[in-house]
Amino acid sequence: MTQQKAFSPEQLRRAILDLLAELPPGKSISPTEAARRLLGSDERQWSRLMKPLRAVAIEMAHNGEIVILRKNKPADPAAFRGVYRLALPGAGNSPASETA
C-alpha cells in the first residue's frame, strides 16, 4: 500500500503561485496542474489533493492573491461550483467588486 504524502496549505499555495509565475500575464492554470506538480501524473495520487487545493485557492482568492475563474470570468470564491481555473489578479481578471 502506497503512503499518501501530506502537503501543508503553504506547500499547496506555493505550488499554485509558482505555476502562475511561470505563465505570461493574463493566463490561468487548472488546479490539477498544481496537484500534478506535487504528486506526478498518476491521477489516483494527484486527485486526492483536489479538495485541499480548492480550500487553499478559496483562501487565496479571499486574500486577493489569486482570482478564481469560471468560464473565463471571475467567480465569487464563496459561491462558485464546478470546473474552475486560477489566475493572478489583473489583466481583466479582477473581480468587479475590486475594480475602480
Give an account of the 3D structure.
The protein is of the alpha+beta class and 100 residues long. It has a single domain, classed as Arc Repressor Mutant, subunit A (Orthogonal Bundle), CATH 1.10.10.10. Helices cover 39% and strands 11% of the residues. The chain contains 4 helices and 4 strands; from the N terminus they run αβαααβββ. It has helices spanning 9-21, 31-39, 43-46, 50-62; strands spanning 28-29, 67-70, 73-74, 85-87. It has a 4-stranded antiparallel β-sheet. A hairpin with a 2-residue loop joins strand 2 and strand 3 (73-74). Helix 1 packs across helix 4. The longest helix has 13 residues, at 9-21. It is globular, with a radius of gyration of 14 Å. It starts with 8 loop residues before the first helix and ends in a 13-residue tail after the last strand. The model is unreliable at 96-100 (pLDDT under 50). Pfam families: DUF3253.
Distance between the termini: 53 Å
Q: Counting H and I runs of at least 4 residues, what is the number of helices?
A: 4
CATH architecture: Orthogonal Bundle
Question: Class by helix and strand content?
Answer: alpha+beta
Q: CATH class, please?
A: Mainly Alpha
**Overall 3D form:** globular
Order of strands, widest sheet: 1-4-2-3
Assign a percent range to the helix content.
Answer: 25-40%
CATH superfamily: Winged helix-like DNA-binding domain superfamily/Winged helix DNA-binding domain
The CATH topology annotation reads as Arc Repressor Mutant, subunit A
Radius of gyration of CA atoms, rounded to a whole number? 14 Å
Number of strands: 4
Please tell me the overall pLDDT.
90
**Strand residue content:** 5-15%
